[in-house]
């Protein structure tokens, strides 16, 4: 009698276990179904070409056409995306925005004053939508081709009424808890006066592993809970220059993204913000040829995201845009109908000359570029609207006229408290 009762108990327990397993399987399927049907994509890439307006993109495609031996028709990868919008960029107090105000709008949906970073005009701290995603289980990666404490990347983790307070901004990085950062390094590594504690000492004390170069990163990534990748040549020093081409001590923007993807993986949803920052810096210098090369570097990084998208087309969103236009660039200066692909050959040859940036002053450089058909109206930002390109889940939300403060809700596919 007791044996029969024991067998019955085992059967009930076994049935209960099977029912529990079935419920867990159903829950997992429902959760996956909910995620795939949610308006928010599971995998999100936001590319920001700093200073990259319509004319900068046109110049890059003109160069691609020159390399193909024709006048036009060649395209960057991201300009082939199916959804296109036009975005206004004004800040809360100026028609012409600065990068920190525009990046704050991107990250939080809040318009703020020029030179403010992650802070509303009234002084209230703004909340990056990347923190919303993190609370929902997303892994976060922040990547830039310029220092990670510069305005655009910093708007996703820091708060300051002084975008130039780089050291204080760096010290706010660990509080984000984001899993992956990558850039050349840090500005004001030892503080503005050069006498403060090193930036990496503080950051590593807060639980981050800081790696200098790809080899160092690969040797340490498997044991790191959160990680920062910087250029090998920038170890223990402040970043003071930016790259026209990458050398063996530097990690390209596309490679940074590849390494970020390898670190974060696709088992969890994720968000990557990837900035092509030196586009803006070369446009400030009014140098067409290296600016075009910088756009191509960012397009190479977009290609990495696009390869990922092809494997997960129903769950991935890629958005490519700019925070503002820099330089007021025009193709065909002064109605120069003689403008042709041969002018690119002159620019290419001139830039290849040794010490070009040192031997040709600003006025001479502008005059030479006008001879090649390119004119600049300023060496600062302009208020021109910038394009937005999108592909993947929710891409249709980026069609038409939008504003930079719309970006968070367009990416998430829902309204949010700011």
General description of the model:
With 418 residues, the protein is of the alpha/beta class. It has 15 helices and 14 strands. Strands 5-6-4-3-7-1-8-13-2-14 form a ten-stranded mixed beta sheet, sandwiched between helices. Strand 5 (209-212), helix 8 and strand 6 (227-230) form a beta-alpha-beta unit. The longest helix has 36 residues, at 2-37. The protein is globular. The termini are far apart. 47% of the residues are buried.
Tally of strands? 14
Give the terminus-to-terminus CA distance: 67 Å
Q: Report the helical percentage.
A: 25-40%
3D shape: globular
Q: Please state the CA-atom Rg, rounded to the nearest Å.
A: 24 Å
The helix/strand order is: HEHEHHEHHEHEHEHEHHEEEHHHEEEEH
Major sheet size, sense and barrel closure: 10 strands, mixed
Strand content: 5-15%
Low-confidence stretches: 23-37
Individual helix count = 15
Secondary-structure class: alpha/beta
Q: Determine the mean pLDDT.
A: 88
Strand order of the largest sheet: 5-6-4-3-7-1-8-13-2-14
Quick recap:
By secondary structure, the chain is of the alpha/beta class. 40% of the residues lie in helices and 15% in strands. Helix 2 crosses helix 11 and helix 10 runs antiparallel to helix 11.
Topology of helices and strands:
Layout: H1 2-37, E1 43-49, H2 54-67, E2 83-88, H3 99-108, H4 129-135, E3 139-144, H5 151-154, H6 166-172, E4 180-182, H7 199-205, E5 209-212, H8 214-220, E6 227-230, H9 253-264, E7 270-276, H10 278-284, H11 288-311, E8 316-321, E9 325-326, E10 330-331, H12 342-352, H13 356-359, H14 362-371, E11 374-375, E12 381-382, E13 386-392, E14 400-403, H15 407-412
Parallel strand pairs: 1-7, 1-8, 2-14, 3-4, 3-7, 4-6, 5-6
Antiparallel strand pairs: 2-13, 8-13, 9-12, 10-11
């Amino acid at each position: 009698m007791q044996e029969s009762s024991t067998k019955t108990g085992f059967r009930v327990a076994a049935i209960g276990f099977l029912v529990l397993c079935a419920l867990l399987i159903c829950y997992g399927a429902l959760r996956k179904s909910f995620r795939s049907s949610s308006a928010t994509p599971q995998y999100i890439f936001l590319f920001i070409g700093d200073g990259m307006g319509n004319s900068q993109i046109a110049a890059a495609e003109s160069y691609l056409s020159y390399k193909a031996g024709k006048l036009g028709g060649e395209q960057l990868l991201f300009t082939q995306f199916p959804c296109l919008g036009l975005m206004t960029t004004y800040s809360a107090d100026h028609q012409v925005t600065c990068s920190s105000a525009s990046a704050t709008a991107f990250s939080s949906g809040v318009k703020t004053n020029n030179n403010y970073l992650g802070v509303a005009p009234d002084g209230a701290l703004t909340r990056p939508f990347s923190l919303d995603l993190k609370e929902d289980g997303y892994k976060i990666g922040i990547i830039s081709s310029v220092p990670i404490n510069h305005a655009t990347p910093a708007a996703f983790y820091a708060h300051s009424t002084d975008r130039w307070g780089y050291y204080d901004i760096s010290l706010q990085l660990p509080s984000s808890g984001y899993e992956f950062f990558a850039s050349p390094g840090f500005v004001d590594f030892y503080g503005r006066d050069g006498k403060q504690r090193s930036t990496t000492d503080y950051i590593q004390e807060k639980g981050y592993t800081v790696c200098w170069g790809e080899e160092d990163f690969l040797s340490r990534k498997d044991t790191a809970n959160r990680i920062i990748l910087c250029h090998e040549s920038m170890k223990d020093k402040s970043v003071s220059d930016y790259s026209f081409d990458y050398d063996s001590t530097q990690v390209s923007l596309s490679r940074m993204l590849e390494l970020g993807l390898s670190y974060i993986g696709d088992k969890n949803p994720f968000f990557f913000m990837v900035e092509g920052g030196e586009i803006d810096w070369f446009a400030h210098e009014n140098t067409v040829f290296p600016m075009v090369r910088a756009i191509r570097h960012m397009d190479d990084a977009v290609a990495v995201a696009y390869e990922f998208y092809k494997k997960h087309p129903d769950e991935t969103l890629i958005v490519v845009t700019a925070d503002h236009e820099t330089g007021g660039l025009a193709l065909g200066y002064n109605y120069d109908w003689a403008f042709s692909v041969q002018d690119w050959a002159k620019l290419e040859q001139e830039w290849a000359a040794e010490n070009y940036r040192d031997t040709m002053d600003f006025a001479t450089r502008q005059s030479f570029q006008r001879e090649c058909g390119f004119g600049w109206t300023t060496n600062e930002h302009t208020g021109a609207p910038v394009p937005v390109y999108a592909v993947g889940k929710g891409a249709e939300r980026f069609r038409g006229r939008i504003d930079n403060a719309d970006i968070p809700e367009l990416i998430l596919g829902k309204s949010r408290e700011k």
